[in-house]
Amino acid sequence: GWWGLAWSCISLGRNAEAVEAFRQVIRLAPLTDNGIEAAKAIERLRARLPELDLPEPEPETFMLVLSLTRGGNTDLWLADAEGNLQRRLTTHLGVDHQPAFSPDARQIVFVSDRSGARNLWALKADATGLRQLTEESTPNYSPSYAPDGRSVVFVSERSGNPELCLLDLLTGAVTDLGETSSKDLAPAWSPAGEALAFVSDRSGAEKLHIWNPATRQSRQLLTSTIPERHPIWSPDGKYLYFSWNLEGHWQICRAQSTGEGLGAVAPSPDDDRLWGLSPDEQWLLISSTRGGLSRLYLRSATGTQTKLVAQGSGEIDSAAVSPALPRSVAQILFTSKPPPRAAPGPQP
C-alpha cells in the first residue's frame, strides 16, 4: 500500500524530483476512497524509480509492545526485535494492557481501566495522541485492527456475554458481529480482511472459528475437542498459529486456514502462550513457564534459538509484534522526545 511505499522511500530527500513525485502519492492516497487515483500515482512513481537513482531500501525490522508491571504499575513499553526495552509509552496508575499495532505500525490500541471500566484506548507509537475509543461501564477487551486500519474488532460484554463487536474509528459507531449465547473471544483479522479468526465455546470446548464478513457465517477450524486459544495469522494469510491444550499441556501449533496441515511449531516441555509472530515468520513471541516462572520469549520457528524479552524488567501481562518497518524508523520511535502534553487532557 501507499504507506509501505512511504516507509521504503524514507531517503528521498536526496532527489528533489523524487520528492515531488512522492508528494503526489502522499496527497492522493489518504484522501481517495476507492484508491484508484492513489494506485495510479504509485504505479507512476514505481515506473520511474530506476531513473530517479534512489538509494536501496534499508533493512527492515520489527518492534514489540509490552504490557509490563513494575513497582505495582502496569504500563506499555516498546522493545526492539532483540527483546530489549527501549521506551515507556504510558505512565498512568491504571492498568494498560492487551496492546495491538495498527497495520502501518503508527498506532497502538490497548485496554485500560483508567476511566473506571475496561475500555479501548489508542495512542501513537511515539507516545503522543492518546485518546479514548470506547466509553462503557461494561468490559471491552482483546482489540485487533482491521487490515485497512479504519476499524477495530474487540470483545464486548455489553449484553452480559462476551461477544464480538466492530468499532468504526472515524464515526465511533459500534456494530455487533453476531449475537450468540456462546462466549466469543480473541478476534484476529486475516491480513487481507476476508476472514476473522476467533475463539468460541459454541461447540462445547473453546475452539478456533473463522467468520466470513461477506456471508456472515462462521466455521470451526478443527474438528477435534482439544481446546485452542490465541489465534495469530501468518503474514500471507494461509496459516493460523495458535495455542492448544493437549492432555493439559499448552503448545504452539499451526494449521492452514482450511483446517488442513496441522502441526506443532517449536515444541517445548513447557506451557506456551502465543502473543505474536514476526513479519518474516521466523520468530514467535511467546510467554512460557520455562523454569517454573512465566516469562516472555522470542523463540525461533525451528525451536533452536530463544531470546528472553525484557529480562529482569518486571512481570509481563501481554504483548504484540509490529508489522515490518525500516530500522531507521524504529530508531526514531525509540529515541524521539514527544512534545509537552497540554493540560488537562488525558495523560498516557
Question: How would you portray this structure in words?
Answer:
By secondary structure, the chain is mostly beta strands. It is 13% helix and 41% strand. It has two domains: 2-52, no CATH class; 63-335, TolB, C-terminal domain (Neuraminidase, 6 Propeller). It has helices at residues 2-8, 16-28, 36-52, 327-335, and strands at 60-61, 64-70, 73-79, 85-88, 96-101, 107-112, 119-124, 131-132, 140-145, 151-156, 163-168, 174-176, 184-189, 196-203, 205-212, 217-220, 228-233, 239-246, 249-256, 263-264, 272-277, 283-288, 295-300, 306-308, 315-321, 325-326. The strands form seven sheets. The protein has a four-stranded antiparallel beta sheet. Strands 5-6-7-8 form a four-stranded antiparallel beta sheet, with no helix packed on it. A four-stranded antiparallel beta sheet has the order 9-10-11-12, with no helix packed on it. Helix 2 (16-28) runs antiparallel to helix 3. Mean pLDDT is 85; it is low at 1-14 and 25-33.
